Amino acid sequence: MNATVTPRMDPASILQNSPLPQLRRLKVVVNDEEVIIIGTVTSYYMKQLAQEALRPSIGRRRLINRVEVCSREKAKD
Questions:
Q1: Where are the alpha helices (DSSP H) in the chain?
Q2: Backbone phi, then psi, for 45, in 5-degree steps?
Q3: What is the dihedral of CA 43, 48, 49, 53, to 10 degrees?
């Protein structure tokens, strides 16, 4: 049986490569202990999508979601 090892993507690049514009605008700060998501989106669903998109890539680090949900106008800033 052949086992292939899939390298983990860098958490900072995952959201930058998202097909969703709101997720591409978020900032991801990465260090040895944690991964922090920062920015604004227009729904709690988008906030959750950002978090779950990063989860497979964080390893043992703690994931901190500081994304704020706000109106459409504010999220565009």
A1: 11-16, 21-24, 44-54, 72-75
A2: -60, -45
A3: 150
